[in-house]
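Please review this pair:
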Amino acid sequence: MATTETSADAEQHATLRVVVIAAAAALGGFLFGFDTAVINGAVDAVRGAFALNAGEIGFTVSCALLGSAAGAWYAGSLADRFGRVRTMQVAALFLAISALGSGLAFGVWDLIFWRLVGGIGVGVASVIAPTYIAEVSPARVRGRLGSMQQLAIVLGIFVALLSDAWLAGAAGGAADKLAFGLAAWRWMFLVAVIPALIYGGLVLGVPESPRHLVAKGRLAEAKDVLRQVLGMSSDSALDKKVGDIAHSLKMEYRPRLRDLRGPTAGLLPVVWVGILLSVFQQFVGINVIFYYSSTLWHSVGFSEADSFTITVATSVVNVLVTLVAIALVDKIGRKPLLVVGSAGMAVTLGVMAWCFSQATGTGADLVLPHSIGPVALVAANAYVVFFGLSWGPMVWVLLGEMFPNRIRAIALAVAASAQWLANFVISSTFPALAQIGLTFAYGLYAAFALISLFFVLSAVRETKGMELEEMPG
């Protein structure tokens, strides 16, 4: 049997078609990044427009993440029932509607509602894209193709922050008016309609996942897709691959939460690993950088224009290091990169905490000493480098491949929901933590980065080069 598996696996190779298909699916990650980061440039303007306090603006910024948790929770069951492609199309629709509603919101509760709608679309896309990419990719390049999700996310963040900066600059400020009498911050939301429509159009042309087709008994279609995406020409190899998928999916036709039950605090150990990977990815505070960085740098003495420039530069760094991670993931492996990332983030976050301990003043009058400002900027960008090399792309790669086939959809939904809830906790509490002190906030994130290092060393299993059908439960 081992010889047959090796022969069938040897026929697999990455075709141009599978790269294009993975890129189209990963565009959901672009919308994920864009929709969650676009609020960065609008924070101060929204706070002023609706007269919000720290708690209210924290909830307004982070409320979309509650929608994302809900979307991630139900995405797996929707994908199993209606297919991966149809579910991606629904996500695109939610994101387009949300962009329109948020840009035209007449009050803070209206804005919160539309951001919740967009959050649902983001949550669905966050689950389906890595699942779909993992299911159509050859094992030997699955890490690189799976990392396209994170590359799309960071590109989405970059484009969102760049458009925020351009719109604010064109208007003279985020609160000032642009075309049709609408404030620049409203256009920051409205422009998200364009990528949502593009995403919806592109996923119309991608094939359904072969694993979903096998689960539904559509074996001939599954073989045709495998032939296209894996470049397999031998009928015997295709039959063997379909047989392997069918065997691994015996228990996956109608996955339920009860399938995740296990001896470790009520869940299977692999499920807890997925949940904790998701939680630590957020508890190191990365989205504080991408949701609040313009406000943060403005609060410590930089002008609004300079704050936007710094934020865009940080997002460029994030894109570049994600490209490096894609080049390394299938050579070095997932676990070594996570270890390096955790150690680097612990150090750089510690440096940031120290820098802000040197600040003078309080609240909006907080100022970093002239010699400390550059150190804080370097530390913040070094932190993004370590995150972008490791916990950014590696968590999504692992979540897409680490679970056995019979529970993959529901386990990924649980892990992704945990990620969004953790993101909500960190993002909604940052304004209040910042009022206590930025030293405390970044010191807390540094502690979580250190804990994540020990977690990876003790609990995370390497999956480099393994077939999805080989993943143990």
